Amino acid sequence: MLNFRKRKKPNPDVSHLLATILVVYPVISTVSYEPQEDAMLELVFAMKAAPTKERFEKIAKQIIDSLDAYHQLEGFPQARIEMHMEGLGATCFLHIKRDTASLSRGELSVLTTLVEEYFSEELVFDELPPSADPDFLLAQEEQLDQMFGNIRQMQIPDRMVGVREHERVMVYAE
Questions:
Q1: Is a pLDDT exceeding 90 seen at residue 45?
Q2: Residue 96 class from Cβ within 10 Å (0-12 exposed, 13-18 middle, 19+ buried)?
Q3: Which residues, 6+ apart, have CB-to-CB distance to 2 below 8 Å?
Q4: Residue 56 CB coordination number (10 Å)
Q5: What is the per-residue pLDDT across 81-118, written as a single tens digit (0 to 9) for each?
Q6: 140 φ, ψ to 5°?
Q7: Do the beta carbons of residue 143 and residue 20 sit within 8 Å?
Q8: Which residue among 95, 98, 113, 131 is least packed, with the fewest CB closer than 10 Å?
Q9: What is the DSSP secondary-structure string of the chain?
Q10: This prediction's pTM
Q11: Which pLDDT tens digit goes with each residue over 128-147?
């Protein structure tokens, strides 16, 4: 006898947030929403080579110090940030977890810029296609702060994952 599980429907607000992050920031390969006590977003950056442990630790400290300074300026001194590398064959993944309580579009822009700067040689990502409408991307970017505000006010029980595959973005609930 076949046993079919009913598929969960992703929360539309979180689904839209994850998809928008992947569209606006093409350097992020995967983003997931973790519904813990402190809801977290995990951003994953794909790399074609792993930096040395010393280089990673130095860069991680610089990124965290930069984000701490950003949080101080924005008035969120208690932001939670976790970073680690995960290697798999010739490919490596940089994982950055961030609580959603104070995460903002500005911080995402700073974070992705820092990752691009520090890991420019190692990053693997699809460039935005030349046909990408800059007005659409700007409108999506401007909506991010509103989307972050929306998910802060909800109890979302399901883990959700957004994945980029070339020019497509898929979001699903686990």
A1: yes
A2: buried
A3: none
A4: 18
A5: 899 999 876 789 999 999 888 888 999 999 999 999 99
A6: -65, -45
A7: yes
A8: 131
A9: ---PPPPPPPPHHHHHHHHHHHHH-TT--EEEEE-SSS-EEEEEEEESSPPPHHHHHHHHHHHHHHHHHHHHHHT-TT--EEEEEEEETTEEEEEEEEETTS--HHHHHHHHHHHHHHTTTTB--PPPPTT--HHHHHHHHHHHHHHHHHHHTS---S-EEEEEETTEEEEEE-
A10: 0.86
A11: 655 567 777 777 888 888 88
Question: Would the pLDDT of 18 be above 90?
Answer: yes
Q: Could you tell me the two tokens for 166?
A: 């070339």
Q: Kindly state the greatest CA–CA separation across the chain.
A: 60
As given in the structure block, the two tokens for residue 113 are: 């810029």
